[in-house]
Write a structure and sequence with these properties.
The complex is a heterodimer of chains A (249) and B (227). With 249 residues, chain A is an alpha/beta fold. Chain A contains 8 helices and 11 strands. In chain A, the strands form 3 sheets. Chain A has a 5-stranded mixed β-sheet with strand order 5-2-6-7-10. Chain A has a 3-stranded mixed β-sheet with strand order 1-4-3. Chain B is α/β, with parallel strands linked by helices. Helix content of chain B is 33%, strand content 38%. Chain B has 6 helices and 6 strands. In chain B, strand 2, helix 2 and strand 3 form a beta-alpha-beta unit. The longest helix of chain B has 22 residues. Chain B is elongated and about 75 Å long. The chains are: A alpha/beta (249), B alpha/beta (227).
């Protein structure tokens, strides 16, 4: 019976649903109305790793809920207004006020536990792919799902994040992996905040918004005629032709 | 013949236990200090924050060690307000994460260009920021122990020993002038023993606690007008 229990313990799946308390960022929010789409692969993200040997366990790390909670807090603190785009109706209703739509995705997640490396540290490494698109690039598919054309993006950039936690007395493997994941999420936020304005395509987009706001302010001060409709580069590029392929969200 | 061998082994284990009890708790500590611009009248109503360095790949300065030093300073001079490390890091997120934390006092000026960060520092009346870098590690271990379990009986027999070493350095930043005003370091080491005759009895050397007391005493001496 004891042998069976020991064998079973060696083969069991360790499951972690990442949980943490995430702080609001200390920032002056950017004067931007940002649309955010969390694709289902992101909002329900989980990572499964099968045991390589009898001494190891399978690992299932569910980060989706924590991802959404964390990035919601970060975006709310970083931008004047955040609009969650979940359906086509929101796209149509809020299109005029949304400056851009951010779509995060998790490109890769890797982890190590002391049984893998013999180093007494639990680590999680993540690579995100952030894509910024104009609201005009969001389309509705026949089944009602939203999609966007990859060619129509305003910016795309990767963000890497790393979290580690040392082994600690009375801390289970699951608690340590959870803590490493929380540290990695916080690191992702720090990386995002510090690199956002410095990403070349994002900087061009931010300049464009600032210029449009200046023009709008100037024209309202001059009170010359009616305000002109805003046309930006993304709309100009979509005018070249209808997208022939899209990425489902 | 077999009885004599068991007697000899028991005597040897008893001798090791006696040695362990005599040596247990013995910790060697070395403290170095180099400080200047000491606040001779204390820090008044200003506050101090103690933060751990966590940007190195192979170790993190332990949160509980930082808490231990903060408690040591506050208990030595209750007039010194020590801001809780985790609360501070959360209040200033994301500016004191391992990736973004300032490594030089001069870089604080860059942080203060952010109006919400500057406003929060003003609210805190922060006078000193103390960075602690280092950790505690177990070193070489020797000995052997075997445990057995049978119907109605279980126990261990043997002897194990391992070392523990702590190495920490505190860097004091004067937050008003944005300059480094001192460094204090503490190195401690000790030997732990685990004799086992039926029940293993760990005799743990308080290596990290001694490092905390040593570093805490030096920092208290620097910050407090009463020490």
């Amino acid at each position: 019976m004891l042998c069976f229990t020991l064998l079973a313990a060696g083969c069991s799946t360790k499951q972690v649903v990442v949980e943490g308390n995430f702080p609001k960022p200390l920032l002056d929010p950017l004067p931007i109305t940002l649309g955010v789409i969390y694709p289902s692969a992101f909002a329900e993200h989980e990572f499964f790793d099968e045991a390589k040997g009898r001494a190891e366990s399978d690992w299932l790390v569910k980060t989706g809920e924590a991802q959404v909670e964390f990035w919601d807090i970060l975006f709310d603190g970083m931008f004047d207004e955040v609009v969650h785009i979940r359906d086509w109706e929101t796209v149509q209703r809020r299109a005029a006020e949304i400056d851009g739509v951010l779509i995060p995705a998790i490109g890769d997640l890797q982890y190590t536990v002391p049984t893998h490396t013999n180093v007494k540290i639990y680590e999680i490494w993540m690579r995100y792919e952030f894509r910024l698109v104009d609201i005009a690039a969001i389309h509705q598919q026949e089944d009602g799902a939203l999609s966007f054309n990859l060619d129509e993006r305003l910016a795309a950039w990767p963000i890497t994040a790393y979290g580690k936690t040392p082994t600690a007395f009375l801390q289970t493997d699951e608690e340590a992996v959870n803590l490493a994941a929380v540290v990695a999420l916080r690191d992702a936020g720090a990386h995002f905040v510090t690199s956002f304005g410095g990403t070349p395509d994002v900087a061009i987009w931010l300049d464009g918004i600032a210029r449009r706001e200046q023009d709008a302010a100037r024209s309202s001060n001059d009170q010359v005629g009616d305000p002109q409709p805003v046309v930006d580069s993304a709309e100009a590029s979509t005018a070249e032709g209808e997208p022939d392929s899209g990425e489902a969200l | 013949m077999s009885g004599q061998r068991i007697d000899r082994q028991t005597t040897r284990i008893a001798g090791l236990i006696l040695l362990a009890v005599l040596l247990g708790g013995c910790v060697n500590a070395t403290v170095d200090e180099m400080t200047y611009n000491e606040p001779v009248a204390g820090i008044g109503e200003s506050s101090v924050v103690i933060l751990g360095r966590r940007h190195k790949p192979d170790y993190d300065t332990e949160f509980d060690f930082i808490e231990c030093i903060g408690d040591h300073i506050h208990s030595g001079d209750p007039s010194i307000e020590v801001i809780n490390e985790i609360a501070f890091i959360n209040q200033f997120y994301p500016w004191f994460e391992p990736r973004t934390a300032p490594l030089q006092p001069q870089t604080i000026d860059r942080l203060l260009q952010l109006p919400p960060v500057a406003a929060r520092f003003d609210e805190m009346k922060l006078e000193y920021m103390i960075w602690i870098d280092g950790n505690t590690e177990n070193t070489e271990s020797t000995g052997s122990m075997s445990c057995g379990i049978g119907p109605g009986v279980a126990g261990c027999f043997g002897f194990g020993t391992w070392g523990t070493e702590s190495e920490y350095e505190a860097t004091i930043w004067d937050f008003t002038d944005k300059v480094e005003v001192g460094r204090v370091s503490a190195q401690t080491s000790g030997q732990n023993y685990m004799p086992a005759v039926v029940v293993p009895i760990p005799i743990i050397a308080p290596v990290q606690g001694t490092a905390c007391d040593s570093l805490g005493d030096q920092l208290l001496e620097y910050l407090s007008a009463f020490h």
